[in-house]
Amino acid sequence: MVFTDRGDAGRRLAARLGHLRGEPVVVLGLPRGGVPVALEVARALGAPLDVIVVRKLGVPSRPELGMGAIGEDGVLVINRAVVQRAGVTAEELAAVQAREQARVEARAARYRAARPREPLAGRVAVIVDDGIATGSTATAACQVARAHGAARVVLAVPVAPPGWETRIAAAADEMVCVATPPGFFSIGQFYADFCQATDDEVAACLQAAAAPAPAPQAAAADPPARAGEPRGEEVATAAGNVELAGYLAVPDGAPGIVVFAHGSGSSRHSPRNRYVARVLNQAGLGTLLFDLLTPGEETDRGNVFDIGLLARRLTQVTGWLRAQPRAGQAAIGYFGASTGAAAALWAAAEPGAGVAAVVSRGGRPDLARPRLGTVTAATLLIVGGNDEVVLDLNRQAQALLRCENHLAVVPGATHLFEEPGTLEAAAALARDWFVSHLASGRHPVA
Description:
By secondary structure, the chain is α/β, with parallel strands linked by helices. 33% of the residues lie in helices and 22% in strands. The chain folds into two domains: 6-210, Rossmann fold, CATH 3.40.50.2020; 233-438, 3-Layer(aba) Sandwich (Rossmann fold).
């Protein structure tokens, strides 16, 4: 594969990152060549663009060997094991640190004359370069992003040598690459135009990204109510010592109730989840949509990716639901989207969970990887055919499941199932799965 230029590479890379749309993303380009690539990613994700200026701290006698990294504001990451093995003294380390810090500040000043650094605390840092050769600079950038408080770090590049993930596996939470061609000698061999990017070009990219973006299209509204649907009501669910707002709808004699765990940046008002809930209601199933976090907790974006916390909330609200008279002996199912799918699988794996079925739509089951082997609920993974990265993550996760499971691919769908007919197809798959598995999975209320 050969990219026309960095803009072409960025657009192709952005197509692999659609699953991050809607999450609290900051796209960070590595100056200079990574910034034009990152601009296209930021545009596609509707996310702010910034640079991450880092310098590797090389061992004095072997500069190619990194003993740490330094970034803006004096953020310092030291690999003490390398320092010790190389016999670097405190004075030598301080001298390297001072030299590289000066270079970081000089370069950052060129790019930040008119704008402050984008804060990373609690957000998803997507670090982008035009390619990876050794991975030392990218690794340093990931370390610095974590030191600045990023809740998750995604390393994304258009091209890298085969096996690049294993070399820097600990650097990022997720790694995305468009191509890993054999015969890799240099990044430039895979670009038709690989002219050196300039500081002026970096500044122009940052200015272009800061320009007002067109208003996003409104999400599809709920379909009109149909005769026979249950009347839903707002409820206050109990989860430990907090109350979480919810919306409960249970038809008379419902054999099962599906509890929804929404993805990051969403809530019980999610139009997509409300649509799926209405389809389930029309099939005679009950539904409970609720907010996984309180309004105060949502201000800490790190909570959005705390899968253990979200799973505990789901378990606690399920206990509350089972105590409600309207629940009766209905079986319980979980429907999770994006990060909510990880929480659903995590909670379903708890001993004595008593969950009969789980459906994941565009989910991230990989975030529940430690628990997948102990899930006993029948699990359906629904993924868009054009959501390539998430599809691959779901295939890997499916291999770890020991319960009854199935992977259903909706052709032509991307991560949010925005394409005509794709959300309807996903909802029908979920309906059929729950109807099949909840009717025989009634759970006696304690």
